[in-house]
User: Fold this.
Amino acid sequence: MAIDIPRLPLGDWIETGLDYLTSEFSGVTRGISRITQTGISALNDALMWLPEWALMAIIALLCWRLAGIRLAIGAVLGLLLIWNMGLWFPMIETLTLVVIATLVAVVIALPVGIFAAVSDKFYSVIMPVLDFMQTMPAFVYLIPAIPFFGIGSVSAIFATVIFSMPPAIRFTTLGIRQVPTELVEAADAFGSTRGQKLLKVQLPLSLPTIMAGINQTIMLALSMVVIAAMIGADGLGNEVWKAIQRLRPGDGFEAGIAVVILAMLLDRLTQAFRKTKKTQ
Amino acid sequence: MSETENIKIQVRGLSKVFGSHPRKALELRDKGKKRAEILEKTGQTLGLSNISFDVKEGELLVIMGLSGSGKSTLIRCLNRLIEPTEGDIVIDDENIPKLSEKELLECRRRHFSMVFQHFALFPHRTVQANAEFGLEIRGFDKAERAKKAREALHQVGLEGWEDSMPSQLSGGMQQRVGLARALANDSTVLLMDEAFSALDPLIRKDMQQELLELQHRMKKTTIFITHDLDEALALADRIILLKDGEIVQIGTAEDILTHPADDYVARFTEGVDMSRILNARHAMRPVRAVARNDDGPRTVLRKLSENGLDSIYVTDRQRKLLGLLEADVADRAAREGQQSIEGLISDDFPKVGPDEPLHNLFAMFGDKSFPIAVVDDDQRLLGVVVKGAVLAQLAEAGEH
Assistant:
C-alpha cells in the first residue's frame, strides 16, 4: 500500500536551526573559541615545557600520595612505555583536551545537578535531555561543532563536553537526593538556609557520589577526544586516525595502548581521590 | 494546674491533609466523616484533625500514639518541617503557620531544637562539630560556639569524645551527641521525636533518667514523642494520647491510667504494671487509733483491744510519729506497773513518704506485717498502708 505521507523534514529543521545559531551567535562562538584555544595552548605549553622526567615524577608522586606505591610504579612504567614509543607529545595533547573538557563539563554539571536535585520540575525536564545527550551517537556532535568552532581542538572540546557531561549531572543529583531525609530534616530543624543546608550537609555527604560521576566524565571525555581526531583534534586519536588512513595496524595499536594506559592512570587516580574523601 | 502557669505554645485547630486537594478532605471531616472514609472518597489522607492543646513553660509533655496516629506529623508541624493545612501554632505571640520563610528560619533558630529517632548526626563532622551545628547556622563566632558545645557535651557526659567521629560511638552515645546538639543551641523548646526508641532497653532507661534530671535542672519546655506507654509514664508531666490523627485524651499519667477516656486508652494502658504508677497515697488509710506519748501502758492496752490491734503507732500532740508500740510490750509494762510508755517505743517499723510507688511497698511488709506508716515531710503521720489495701488498689486499677 502506497499511502503518500510527506516525509517529515526533521533534518532540514535541525540544519536551519543550526545555521541560525551559527550566523546569529558567531560573535559568541568566536569568543568561546578564542578563550578555549588560549586555555588549551597554555596548558599544553606548560606540560610540554616540563621535561618528561619531571612530569613523570610529579604524576608518580601524586599517585603515591593518593593511592600508594603500587600505582606510582605502574604509572611510571606506563609513562615510560609511552615515551619509548615516541608518543609523549600526542599523549600530552590528549591529556590537555581531557583536562579542559572535564573542567568545563564539571563547572556546568555541578550547578545543573544541584538544581535538578532541589527542583522536581527541573529534574523531570533535564533527565530526558541527558538521555538524549548520552544515547545520541557521539560522532553526530562532531558535525555541528565544525560550523560553530571550525576544525580543530575547540570543536573537539565542545563535542566532548556535551558527550561527557551527563554522568557528572546525574551523579550530582543522585548524591544529593541520597542524603538521608533525617539529616536534611536536622539541617532544616536548626534553621539552616538553603545555602547552609547545601554547603554544610548535602554537598559534603554527596561528595563521594559526585566524585564517581566526575570519574565517569573523565573516562567518557578520554574516549571522545580520541574520536574527535576526525575533526582535527591533536593527540593520540590523531595517531590512530593516521594509522587507519595509512593502513598501519602496528602504529594504530601503539597509539591505542597509550590511550589505555592514560585511561587507567586517570581512572585509578580519581578513584583513589574519591576513596580518601570517603574515609575522612 | 493553676492559672498562673505560663503557656509556651498554644496549638488551636491544627489539621494536616496529605494530598493535592486538602479542602475536600476537610469538608468531609467537618461533616463528621472519619479518616478511612475520607481516604476512600477523596484519596486524601487526613494526617491530623483539629488538634488543640497547650504546652506549658518548663513542662515535659509527652505525645503518645501508635504508628500512624499522627504523632510524628504533629511534632513536625510545630516547626513546620511539615506544612500544616490549617490551624494556629502560637509561640510567644508568633503564629508559626503565618510566618514568612525568613521569619520561620529565625523562629526555628530561636525556639526549636530537635532530637531525632535515628540520631541524624552528621557523619562527616566530629562530635564537637555536630554539637556546634545549630550555633554555626546562627552565625556565632568560633570561640563562643566551641565553648557552648563543650558545655553541652559535658552535660550529657561526653567530655573527652569531642574529636571522635559519630560512627565511632555506640547508639546510646550517639543519641547523647544528638541531645548535646539540641542543648547547645539553647533554644526555648526541645522537640524529641522517638528519641530513645532506637536504643536497647537498658540504655533507654538510663537515658530517660538523665533526661528527667536534665529537665529538672534546666526546666526546659520539652515535647517528647513516643509509642511506648511505659516511657510516657516514666517521663511525662502530662500526656497527650493521639489516635488516627485526633486527640483522645490529655492528662497526667495518673488521669490516663485511672480514668481512661475510652476503650482505646484503656487497651493502651492494660499492659502497664500499675504498681509503678500508683503510690502510697492511693492505698493509704486513715489511722484508726494512735497512742500518744503521754499515755500510760493501760490506756494503750485499752486502745489496742478496742480496735482489735496487736500494735499501735505512737505520736506526740502534733501527730508527729515517734514510733511503734507492740501489744505484748505494753502488756508486760502494765503488769510491771510502769506509768509511762516512753522507752518502750520501738523504731523498728516501715515508714514511707506519700509518693512512694506501690511496687516498692511489697518488700517492706516484713514477717510481723506491721502496717506501713505514711508520713509527710515533717514526720507527721498521714495514714497507714496494710498489705491487703495494696492488693485491693491494684486489682481495682486493673479492672478499668
